[in-house]
Structures are given as C-alpha cells and as structure tokens.
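User: Sequence in, structure out. Go.
Assistant: Echoing your sequence, followed by the structure tokens.
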Amino acid sequence: AISAGSSSATSALIASPWSSQLMKWFGTDRHGLAATFLVMGLVYAVFMAMGILLVRLPPPEWVPPVVRATAPKSRHGAGPDRTASEAIQTRQFWLLWVVLCFNVTAGIGILERAAPIYRDYFPRAASPAALTAAAAGFVAMLSLANSLGRILWSSASDAAGRKNMYRLYLGLGAALYLVLIVAQNASKPLFLVVCILLLSFYGAGFATVPA
C-alpha cells in the first residue's frame, strides 16, 4: 500500500516555497515564469526517473498477512479477477469512489486554506510578519502529516485490513471535523492536533485506495 500511494504530499512543504524563490530569481513576467517551470520540470524529471529505477512491485506470490488470513471470497465482488470494465459495474467500485472523493475533498479543504485558517485562529500575533511565518510553518506541518499518513496508516492497513482503515478515516475523520466546528478556537492545541490527524487521513486515503 505504501508504494501504491501517489505523491502530491510535498507540494505545500517544498514546491510552494521553492517556486516562490525561483520566481524571485527569474522574475514574474512571462520569461521568468517559463524559466521557473522549466527548472521545476527538469528537477521533477530527475526524481521521477529515480522512482522508476528504484520502486519495484512485490513478487507475484506475495500477499499481505491480512489477505493470507482471509478465506477465499466469492467472485461476485470486485477483485483481482475483474477487468476494469467489469469492476466499474460493481457496487464496491462506486462505494470506494465515493469514499475516496469524500476523503480527498475534506483533506484539500483544510490544506488549500491552511494559512488563512491559521490566521483566523491566531489573530493576536506579535507582528504580521510573525503571523505569516507561523502560518507558513502550519502549512508545512500539515504537509508533513500528509506525507507521514501515507506511510504509517497504509502500513497499518496491511495488518488491520483496508476496509477497517477506511472506516477509521471516515468515522474518526467525521468526528474530528465535528470537533473543529464545536470547539472552534477555544483550544489551540486541540485545533493543531485535530488538523494534523485529518491531514494524515487525507494522505493515507491516497496510499490505501489502490491496494
């Protein structure tokens, strides 16, 4: 499940400040933006090539422990014996699609507005510059939670099972969003912990759904 996860997790943590720095060097006119995209594209190409060389599928006979411990399933469900066209005709496929859609939309809702949310929750900063720096740190912290969630929760799914992990993502995730609504800015530590957990579930959804 870890290797199956796609990775946009570092976008806010690395790509955002990096692209800002490149635009300071090259400028923000059409030539500067073109140079920024060219440099970023070349660097991404190097790392993608490294991924192609390093990432490998497990041996054909390998299965996670949770699969080995489970009795053979009926062919009426979606599984490795289904083609893509057959899979999209199953109830399981569309339930999984809806689950992933909710999980991703909820995570993006926080990550995309993380800096304004932080400024709203912590309005009494020492200075505007300090507030901006703290908001950037908050965004970086959420991006790190996103990345770690892909590794930790997807690893746990190998033992606990994919369905159980998605029950955790959705059930506990819904409760955590309710906590944010009810508590609002009454407790700053609670706000930070809840946001970190929610973003870890967001990353975990990407890493778990392919498996």
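User: And one key feature?
Assistant: Residues 128-160 form the longest helix (33 residues).
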